[in-house]
Amino acid sequence: MADYDFSTLSSSDLEELVCDLLNAKERSNQSEIFFRTFRDGKDKGIDILYSTAANDYEIVGQVKHYYRSGFNVLRRTLVQDEKQKVLRLKPTRYIFATSVDLSVADIHDIQSIFHPYLLGNDIYGKKDLNRLLESYPEVLTNHFKLWYSSSNVLQKILTYHIEGRSFEFQENDLKRRLRLYVETPFLSQAQDKLVKNNFIIITGEPGVGKTTTAELLLYKLISDDYMYRSDESILCRFAFRQVG
Q1: Which end of the chain has less Cβ packing within 10 Å, N or C?
Q2: pLDDT for the residue numbered 232
Q3: Residue 180's domain spans which residues?
Q4: Is residue 6 part of a domain?
Q5: Is the pTM of this model over 0.90?
Q6: Final residue of a structural domain among 74, 108, 140
């Protein structure tokens, strides 16, 4: 089974991932259901939504990260905040997903909190999301930050020593910077050009993300078993140069 811990995703990233996984599952079942997400802000208990002509809240989904806080903190939030929102919405079907690793007892507990709107099969914990990723691997291509939360990938990056920059390869710092990174089309373009040309020049105004982009490319190559040569500041046959 896949082993992503989702630690490199922001809450918004996780919502988009869950939405894409649910849509992939619906497509595989030849269903016409298509879920959508919304911009960050007060969500009234709605992170994911499917509406029909008869019911604006036909299927409502809520996604909670809480991978650091654990189940007890998550449960308290569900009871104090989310339960009343669901009771007001009265959806035909409710879906709940979290990056927390859930036990059978935890699933039953969550189901009872949102009774009668939530069925056990519509509760997704950490292992369930990993199973969906195994079933629908194409979703990974749209969530590059998720790839860095694989234990195998993280281990390669975190144990790799680069002279003068070892402080950047601390687990908490690495995960924090990845969560804060906002994905843009430029990263995939930079990866393609790097593979095609064997080098890339990253330039732009201060603060646009030149260093972060270079670091993400670096992490990707390290995890692909390329070797860094600090004497020439190049990573195997790929050269990085920042201008500006």
Answers
A1: N
A2: 43
A3: 150-243
A4: no
A5: no
A6: 140
